[in-house]
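Interim report, section 4.2 (structural modelling).
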Amino acid sequence: KAGVTQTPRYLIKTRGQQVTLSCSPISGHRSVSWYQQTPGQGLQFLFEYFSETQRNKGNFPGRFSGRQFSNSRSEMNVSTLELGDSALYLCASSPGTASGSPLHFGNGTRLTVT
Amino acid sequence: AQSVSQHNHHVILSEAASLELGCNYSYGGTVNLFWYVQYPGQHLQLLLKYFSGDPLVKGIKGFEAEFIKSKFSFNLRKPSVQWSDTAEYFCAVNAISSGSARQLTFGSGTQLTVLP
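Predicted structure of the assembly:
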């Protein structure tokens, strides 16, 4: 079974631009979560989607948004990029929303903002 | 809000040495606890998890962890490490009241280097 696929692997953007990251979950997984990983803050929860609905959102500004499609694929968007948005963005999928559903992480998209 | 502390940022061991990585969390309610591992160049993988029941949980590759509720701790152990255990290890907590089982709070990670 293919794992979680994130595209692109690397991105370089300029301050003020916007960016869209894509995540394809494991087949059959309906929950997709996004995390930001930085050396200073570590791994931080961004948001979770299930059945095309955002179920939970972390403590990030409104510039960070996402969506989920009917095939469970998800995108996250960051508008008006800031230097501090440089990070590894991780997507994780799970079969459902119950506590017993572990997260399966992708390799991430490394975003560099210059 | 909950927080997770991993006190050891970098641990260096020789092969066959025993391992214990500390993890403490701050949250007074019910939690689910996890250890994830990230091998060089690979994605985060689940090592083990604790939801309820026996506080001593066993995971993959010979790892185990013990949940001590009174100490808010969930330390990871392995009796004899191998060179292939070189990786970064993350402790994570999910507060049941957070509304999402996928909203994990992660520790800052411990880099384990095993010398051959």
